[in-house]
Queue: 2 jobs
Job 1
Amino acid sequence: MSDQLKERIRQLLPRTIETRRHLHMHPELSDHESETAALVARRLRELGLEPRTGIGGHGVVADIAGRAPGPTIALRADMDALPIQEETGLPYASVNPGVMHACGHDGHTAMMLAVAEILSEEMRTRAGTVRLLFQPAEETVGGAPRMIADGALKGVQTVIALHGWRHLPVGHIGVMAGPSMAGADVFDITVRGHGAHAAYPHQSSDPIVTAARIVTALQTVVSREMDPLDPAVLTVARISGGTAYNIIPDTAHLAGTVRTLSRDVADRIEAAMRRIVEGECVAAGATGEVVYHRGSPPVVNDPAIVELVREAGVLSVGPDAVTDLLRPSMGAEDFAYMLREAPGAMYRLGIGDGAPGHNAGFDFDDRAIPAGIETLCRSALLFVERHSARP
Ligand SMILES: [Zn+2]
Ligand SMILES: [Zn+2]
């Protein structure tokens, strides 16, 4: 089957690249992926599948049923682009001003369409179901939970996704069991003092000074309160307050993000943040308010599914091109929500060292496409074969 599958991928490669570049040229922002979703649904229908549309927004779900009932594996690709003005100068650069596929989701979607075509053929001789999830709104962290709410993962035993990754050679596969990407929360802090003429500070409770103290004090949360072996980031990314040179304002605002690899660490950071804000405000005769928003949880990969993906990777690209990733990323991925519904894994597909993601110069490297298609196909086929009851 190995050579047969590689040959099939070779046949599909030109059209897949064409699809990828078409999507690149016509990117759509999160929750506006209507054209992309329409293209996906049309192509799935051409394969004889019956896609369900409008799942969690513009999401598309299609089941590829085998010849007999059996296990169900879901494969997910994200479809949305970013609010960036493209500066690649490529012939297929975005024609939508201020919108760009700068995270490689064009590649993910195009590869998944090739996977759909191959697995529609391969599943005829196998038991079980492969469910394809084309997800909207990954960048704004909303698509995955909404697809789940719409039942996209009902009856699924495992779910797998890949993401293009710069720090791996093109076409290499990177796998990691356990926490591999961070959970991401955001916070808003309001300091309420009372304002005065800037020449008479003794008549005020200056929220600017208190906010500055809070920024400094928050630096000790990770460095002094967290176990050094628990990775964590607390970044104050925005500070604002005041309107003029000579007015001490009533309020000041801080906002930022917290990244951790476990919910427990995030809980401790939130508690420390509340304590510090309250303490600094009491000391200054001000009041503080912390609004802490839970974002996407950490990406936690199931060890058994990671082994399956590794096996699929070795079969696809050879053992030398499969890497055990030793360091998690503090970036976030809303696929994490799907991993809470079913054990599964996100793995990384090497796209070499071009411009970084979320950058105006980024482009998905088409040379990675065959490895992406083959590892997704093989992961799905290995799973249904292993988990089908033997006659
Ligand atoms: Zn992204
Ligand atoms: Zn992405």
Job 2
Amino acid sequence: MKVSPSVMIIFGGTGNLTNSRLIPALYHLESANLLPKNFKVIGVARKEFTDKSYCDELLISLKKYSRSGVDEEVWKRFSEKVTYLRANFDDKDSLSDLSAILDNLEKEWSICFNRIFYLAVAPSFFPVVFDSLKRNKLNEGCAKDANPARIIIEKPFGRDLKTAKNLTTKLAGIFKEEQIYRIDHYLGKETVQNILTFRFGNEIFEPILNNKFVDHIQITMAEDVGVEGRGEFYEEAGVLRDVVQNHLLQVLALITMVEPEAFDAKSIRKEKYEALKAIRFIEPNEVDKFTVRGQYGPAKSKKGYREEDEVHKDSNTETFVALKTSIDNSTWKGVPIYLKAGKRLEKKVTSMTIQFKETGHRLFEKFSNKPEANLLTFQLQPDEGVAVRLVAKKPGFEKELQNVDMEFCYNSAFREPLPEAYERLLIDVMNGDQTLFPHIDEVEESWRFVDKILEGWSKQSKPQFPNYDSGSWGPKEADELIEADGHSWLAHQLSVCQIHFRN
Ligand SMILES: NC(=O)c1ccc[n+]([C@@H]2O[C@H](COP(=O)([O-])OP(=O)(O)OC[C@H]3O[C@@H](n4cnc5c(N)ncnc54)[C@H](OP(=O)(O)O)[C@@H]3O)[C@@H](O)[C@H]2O)c1
């Protein structure tokens, strides 16, 4: 694959995101020879570093976070492409040196390269960074209009519809939509990208993905960890903003959208937006009925949320949510959709399961048990794969049925190790492909959905937190929400691709 010459300027070059995700992703791209010949990373932050001491720090983290260790040769090659620029965003002139650095590189390489600005800083810094970029004409790129600069913004984009719109207003006049890459790393996962391929590349699935055949859909994102030192961020976010607004609604849009006209950014983002618009809002006066929120308490020698660093001891921030909604269009009308996400749950699993209807089977009247519903599961974590649950006759003389799973697992089907989501997404930015980056219309529509719930919660009486133990599956009301419809949370029971065939 040919990747365009690029310089990635990481604002927040000393932070957690840079150390744990971005540098490991870029290192692996170097290792796979995917970085372009003309490539540089410029880390920008306040701490005092030389290029050499900055790289020494990055190497320490890389050893911790790399998915395949660190090869000395590759690191040497990669570290030669890394430099550091000390700057304080509180200082108005902090980025004035950057223009000169980029212009000099342009002369040295004699080419027009992509100028990519990655905002790995707290959202409170976004406005001042935008202003600085504009003041120094850094938004224009190397040759105005021919190759304008690109900006990468981490999710969540805003903290509600109003702040998302404010952010858009701030960006207006500085960066156009085609220059903005709103990153949601879940969309870089192979299984997520494969949802569309499975649906539209295999004739057997699409005809049955509708309300005639589908009983309901469940999407679960369960984490076994707590806030992991990010208490301050989490206090402001909560699980609804942190993962439902982006990861879960995006996955829901991919499984319910209609077939796009083409496999390109414009067509896919358009249909995802239409799908998001069709999701039924949970009105503020319905949150009692259709949502359950929770917060983990201490258990099994694990801290409760309120004992975490930088968390208020009376915090009412939710670390768990379960909700029920549906899709208001002719394809999906009447199919319940259950979403669930939480921290410090029993195990780490992110999956989406489509349960098909049971239509009654006369043939098996004399059997000791009846066929159970077929399931189609896309699992994103811990192992990426897709499974179809079928019914088979149990071997032997008895008339007995048994569920069997047909699985497609990435780690056994393909010999190459899976690229991390960030690796894929960073390459896409360098190549100017926005397919896996949500459009502002999608982001705003997702906030409309979430804002209604937040409004409803704000009118409820104070929640009785904590209301679930660390290491459990969340509050019992979440089970009751789905059991009231005769279902149960399938992610508790299903484990896709747990057998590792080869690596
Ligand atoms: N960490 C993750 O896994 C993760 C995941 C998804 C999204 N995000 C998002 O990514 C962003 C960064 O998160 P993070 O966890 O990496 O935060 P972090 O560890 O607190 O890093 C913040 C960075 O900002 C720099 N900084 C702070 N004040 C500055 C100033 N006045 N001038 C210049 N630089 C300044 C810090 O460097 P100095 O102290 O050296 O200046 C540091 O490099 C946030 O928006 C977060 O929501 C993070």
